[in-house]
Amino acid sequence: MADAIQRLVAGGGLQTVFQPIIDGSTGVPVGYEALTRGPEGGPFEPATALIAAAASAGISIALERACLKSALRSFRELQLEGRLFVNLRPQTLLDWRDLARWLAAEAAAHRMDLHDVVLEVTEHGLTQDETALAAAVAPLRALGCDIAIDDLGAGSSGLKTWAAVRPDYVKVDRYFVAGIEQDAVRGEILRSVVDMGRVTGCHIIAEGIENPEQCALVLDLGVDFLQGYLLGRPQRVPRLDAAALAALETVKPGATADCAEHLVRPIPGVPSFMQVAEVVDLFRRNPGWTALAVLESKRPVGLVHRDELLIFLSRPLHPEVYNRKPIASVMTRETVQIEARSRLDQVSRVVTARSSHRQRDDFIITRNGLYLGLGRTIDLLRQITAQQIQTARHSNPLTGLPGNREIDTHLSQWIARRRRFVACHLDLDHFKAFNDAYGYARGDQVLLHVAQVITRMVRPRVDFVGHVGGDDFVFLLRSEDWCLRLTALMEELGASLASFHSSEHREAGGLDGIDRDGSHRRFPLLSVSVAAVEVDGAQPVSAEHVAERLRHTKHLAKAQPGCACLLVAGDRLIDLLSRVETPARTADSAAPLAVASS
Question: Fold for domain 18-33+83-253?
């Protein structure tokens, strides 16, 4: 077996296949991952068998060298566009001392720009000495290569390696993508990884995308790039799945008003080899420019500030010494770079985290690592202020929860994206009588309490809570344990609302008041009625139909004494408190909603 693997590696019998990596915002490939296989039908065809045999024979580095050579050659022969992603074991990076020199020579032989190469370090077998690994990738970065951590979450030291290596890309292990449509916890973990990527300027790639629902969910969580069988299988000549890309058009996110892309000032960057005198001339011809990004192969490597440069050149003999030097010799290398799709709150945290003596107004905005333009702190503050004003304008002034506009937007978007969720409408019972007896200030305390209980019971950033107005609340639940959350909500409100009444009314079990017809009558204590409609997204349904079903179900819930929570699930009406089921009846002749069973 050892002789066979040695002959295979030495004889160039390896084959390279490529799998596309897709930009989730455009549907365009940003690159291809090179995967090595042995001869088709042979014992070494699977990559796992190939790697194990090479390790057993003591030729792991020879195998890595052959894989890299094959990947570079095949990528160039196929004239593939975008970036080449290649895998390296962590131990190879530590043991292969002249890797940088060899890779530079090999890339030159194949006319490959190393700025187009991304080296993936798999988390499997990651060393515990992250400092040594960071030192090992430094010379590769100096050549222009980007670094990726592969299979994040599959090992035990991925986050420590992330902090030490500062990768340009992180590929999340397929475990967190597989089953994400049934497991909200995996989605929350992936969302946290995306947030870390935004803050650290790292692109997140979700591997293992195998169906449209997974694709839609990871895009909704903010993942940058996608890879998986749904979009294209590993092949010698890679092909994109046309049907999958067409479906991607319906779910891919666009730039929103709360992302960094809207801060871009399209000020051109300058190449790192441009002479200092030429940059000074650019500043003089464009007095509104306060900084310029310095680029290498369209990728920012530094920033030069107008005032600092002019002050620097005002010193004796400095113009004579530096005017003909490249701008890279005087630029600031420690810059803030923001991905275009970063949320404004993330941008704010990164920009304001800079130490005060390095604080500058300008920062760099990139898209997929390429220079897009400059941003300014003053524009960021204006955008955040405008966002806060817009949010306040459409929020309930008492509870601060989103109002009708946001409720309608979320409901329509979730339906359009075929999300599976439960729409709920909560209404307080006998609230008018309570206000008449205790006053509106006390009534506002009740509304704030209800808003706080609902907000506490839902899953942040997964579920949505809105306040229609008065004592009407709408919340949309995507959490997998929505039924437990809804039950806990009913239990807490059922136990706490009575405390807002006086002891006299609690002992009497009610209070006297005047109904809407002007008649005197006895009213029970405060309670809540909740109508819920479960939508599975499998069949098209309109927001109006969901709203009508909620309206009718709320009418049924309010007809019951005390707290009530009724769920419409398919053709069934379920009392979630008593677990009694009856056939659901609609208020009109419309067909029942397409909803999942409870």
Answer: TIM Barrel (3.20.20)
